[in-house]
Design brief:
By secondary structure, the chain is an alpha/beta fold. It has two domains: 4-28 and 268-384, Lyase, Ornithine Decarboxylase, Chain A, domain 1 (Beta Barrel), CATH 2.40.37.10; 97-261, TIM Barrel (Alpha-Beta Barrel), CATH 3.20.20.10. 29% of the residues lie in helices and 24% in strands.
C-alpha cells in the first residue's frame, strides 16, 4: 500500500517525517514555503510594509527568516517583542498591536525602543501617554468580518465614529496620532472585504484633518487566508482589490499602508502528523456513526476547530478507499475535545487504530494554542526545516 506520506507533494516534509521518531503528534514547517509566501505578499502589495503577526507561529527559525527577508513584526506582548528583537531587527520594525496592554508592558516596550502602539479607547491612550510619551498610536476600528471563516468579535476596536475622538485625545496628550487600523476577520475569503473598512478609514482621516490632525498610516490588518478544504483567491487578487479600494476612498492621497499576515504567511507551510488512538461506536446499531480519536485535539493545538470553523485537510494511508462520515475527537478527558461532530468528517472505512494521519495547513495557530500539559500531554512538538 502507498505510504500515507505520499499524500504530501512536498519532498522536504515527506523526508523529514519519514525519519522522525516521535512518540506523539509532531508539526513540521517548511521554511521555503514561508519564503515564497513572503515574496507573494511583497509582490501583491509592493508599497505596503509587511508586519508578520508573530502570534501565528513564533518559531525562532521563522522569525529569523522573515527578518532577513525584510519583514517587520506585529507583536501582542513583551515576550513577542523580545522574540522579534532577538532576530536583530531594530525596534522601529515592531508594532505593539494588541489594544489590551498592561501599563507596565507599555513601559517595557517603550524601554526597548518600540514607538508604535495600537489603541481603541481613551483609557488605552492615557496608559501610553504616561508610559510611552511621544509615541505613535493608531486607532483600531470595528469591522464586520463578513466572509471570514474565523470572524473576530467586538473585543477589539471601537466604532468608526469614535475613532477621531480617540486620536484627538492622543494628539492633545502629546502622542503622535498616526493612523487607523482594522481587521476584516481571519481566513477572509472575500477579496472585497477591505472596501467598507477603507471607506471608514478615509472618513476618519478627513475628520481628523478637519480638527487639524494629519494621519499618515492605514493598518490593513490580517485576514489573508490559507487553503484548507476550499480553494481561495490568489494573493494578487487581494492586492488588486485593496489597491482599488485605496484609490476609490483616498484618491491621489493614498496613505502609508501596512499589513499583518499570519495565517496567510505560514498556514500552508506546516503539517501535523498524528496517530489514530481509537475507533469505536457508541452503540451496535448498523447506522451508528464511528468515532475516530486522534492523539491531538483542541487542547493539543487544534483550537481553531472550535465551532468547527477551520476544517483541516486530513490525509491517510488509505486515501482512495471507501469513506464514511465519522466524528473526529482528541485524546483528552474533556468532553469539549471534539473537533468535528456537527458536520462529520469523511474518512476511509479501512482506517485502523495505530494508523498515522497527516493534518495539513497547520502552520498557523497550532503550537501557540497548544496547552502546556493538560492531562499530562506534552505540548505539540514543532520543527522547522
Amino acid at each position: 500500500m502507498t505510504s500515507h506520506l505520499d499524500a504530501l507533494e512536498n519532498d522536504r516534509l515527506r523526508g523529514f517525517l519519514r525519519n522522525a521518531q516521535a512518540d506523539g503528534p509532531i508539526m513540521v514547517v517548511d521554511s521555503e514555503i514561508v519564503r515564497e509566501n513572503y515574496a507573494k505578499f511583497a509582490r501583491a502589495l509592493p508599497d505596503t510594509r509587511v508586519f508578520y503577526a508573530v502570534k501565528a507561529n513564533p518559531a525562532p527559525e521563522i522569525l529569523q527568516l522573515l527578518a532577513d527577508l525584510g519583514s517587520c513584526f506585529d507583536c501582542a506582548s513583551v515576550v513577542e517583542i523580545d522574540m522579534a528583537l532577538a532576530t536583530g531587527v531594530k525596534p522601529d520594525r515592531i508594532s505593539f498591536g494588541n489594544t489590551i496592554k498592561k501599563e507596565r508592558d507599555v513601559a517595557a516596550a517603550f524601554a526597548r525602543g518600540v514607538r508604535l502602539f495600537a489603541v481603541d479607547c481613551r483609557e488605552e491612550v492615557e496608559k501610553i501617554e504616561r508610559s510611552a510619551p511621544g509615541a505613535r498610536v493608531f486607532c483600531r476600528i470595528l469591522a464586520d468580518g463578513a466572509g471570514a471563516e474565523w470572524p473576530l468579535s467586538r473585543k477589539f476596536g471601537c466604532v468608526p465614529a469614535m475613532a477621531a475622538d480617540v486620536l484627538e485625545h492622543a494628539h492633545a496628550r502629546g502622542l503622535v496620532a498616526y493612523g487607523v487600523s482594522f481587521h476584516v476577520g481571519s481566513q477572509q475569503n472575500n477579496v472585497g472585504a477591505w472596501d467598507a473598512a477603507l471607506a471608514s478609514a478615509a472618513e476618519i482621516f478627513r475628520e481628523c484633518e478637519r480638527r487639524g490632525i494629519y494621519l499618515s498610516m492605514v493598518n490593513l490588518g490580517g485576514g489573508f487566508p490559507t487553503r484548507y478544504l476550499k480553494d481561495i483567491p490568489a494573493v494578487d487578487a487581494y492586492g488588486n482589490a485593496i489597491f482599488e479600494a485605496l484609490k476609490a476612498h483616498f484618491g491621489n492621497r493614498i496613505p502609508e499602508t501596512i499589513i499583518e499576515p499570519g495565517r496567510g504567511m505560514v498556514g500552508n507551510a506546516g503539517v501535523i502528523e498524528a496517530e489514530v488512538v481509537l475507533i469505536s461506536k457508541k452503540s451496535d446499531a448498523e447506522d451508528e456513526i464511528r468515532w475516530v480519536y486522534l492523539d491531538i485535539g483542541k487542547f493539543g493545538g487544534l483550537a481553531e476547530t472550535m465551532d468547527e470553523a477551520i476544517r483541516y485537510p486530513i490525509r491517510t494511508a488509505h486515501d482512495g478507499d471507501a469513506v464514511a462520515p465519522c466524528v473526529l475527537a482528541g485524546p483528552t478527558c474533556d468532553s469539549a475535545d471534539v473537533m468535528y461532530e456537527k458536520a462529520p468528517y469523511a474518512l476511509p472505512v479501512s482506517l485502523s487504530i495505530g494508523d498515522k494521519v497527516l493534518i495539513e495547513a497547520c502552520g498557523a495557530y497550532t503550537t501557540t494554542y497548544a496547552a502546556v500539559a493538560f492531562n499530562g500531554f506534552a505540548p505539540l512538538a514543532s520543527h522547522v526545516i
